[in-house]
Amino acid sequence: MNITQDLSIIELMLHASLVVKLVMLLLLGVSFMSWYYIFRKAFAIRDAKARTDKFERDFWSGGDLNALYQSAINNRHETGALERIFEAGYREFTKLRGQKTLDPATVVDGARRAMRATYQREIDDLEAHLAFLASVGSVSPYVGLFGTVWGIMHAFRGLANMSTATLSVVAPGIAEALVATAIGLFAAIPAVVAYNRFAHRVDRVAVRFESFMEEFSNILQRQTR
């Protein structure tokens, strides 16, 4: 796209009606917010995956559970989601195992519930702002279409005071209106792609968390015997 084309699009936006301008500004603002959340979420999910990989290597290397637990407590600012799930489960397990009146099944079940609660918080955090991206992807085209319909109506109303209506007279108004639809698609397409990709990646991380909780519960159950 050359400079002339860029300027022509800007001129179309500047000469649009007030309602269409407001629609364009709204869509541009939503687009900038969606890109902000896209980059933020990409880094967050990548960091969660890297920390999960590291903790799984440490956990399955055969290290002492008490040592892993103490490391998680002493380095809270560096722990990942899976490590916090482990910490919650092992803390509850240690506390319940000290109560002699509880049977082993109750102890393990309490640890599992503690891990499940932490798991839900961590997944909610990873899924934060995904609903916003989904809303942008589904609503933005319709908002842009509203701006286009309004702009076309405005352009045709302007013909009422003209004796002759030619394509050269109608075309600028229609072009101004169509820019709103283009901006709506510009906002929607990246949001839809990002939402689908991030939702899939969060689901994969969630499966890894659930698998770990089941395997760790089995380990704790063997320790109660």
UniProtKB/TrEMBL annotation:
Q: Name the Pfam families for this protein.
A: MotA_ExbB
Q: Where is the MotA/TolQ/ExbB proton channel domain?
A: 82-210
Q: Which GO terms describe its biological process?
A: bacteriocin transport; cell division; protein import
Matches recorded under PANTHER family: PROTEIN TOLQ, TOL-PAL SYSTEM PROTEIN TOLQ
Q: Which GO terms describe its cellular component?
A: plasma membrane
Q: How does the record say this protein sits in the membrane?
A: Multi-pass membrane protein
Q: Which family does it belong to?
A: Belongs to the ExbB/TolQ family.
Q: Subunit composition?
A: The Tol-Pal system is composed of five core proteins: the inner membrane proteins TolA, TolQ and TolR, the periplasmic protein TolB and the outer membrane protein Pal. They form a network linking the inner and outer membranes and the peptidoglycan layer.
What is its subcellular localisation? Cell inner membrane; Cell membrane
Its annotated function is as follows: Part of the Tol-Pal system, which plays a role in outer membrane invagination during cell division and is important for maintaining outer membrane integrity.
- What keyword terms does UniProt attach to this protein? Cell cycle, Cell division, Cell inner membrane, Cell membrane, Membrane, Transmembrane, Transmembrane helix
Q: Which residues cross the membrane?
A: 12-39, 130-153, 173-195
- The reply on keyword Ion transport is no
Q: What organism is this sequence from?
A: Rugosibacter aromaticivorans
Q: What is this protein called?
A: Tol-Pal system protein TolQ
Q: What InterPro entries does the entry give? A: ExbB/TolQ_transport, MotA_ExbB_proton_chnl, Tol-Pal_TolQ
Q: Which residues form a coiled coil?
A: none
Principal localization?
membrane
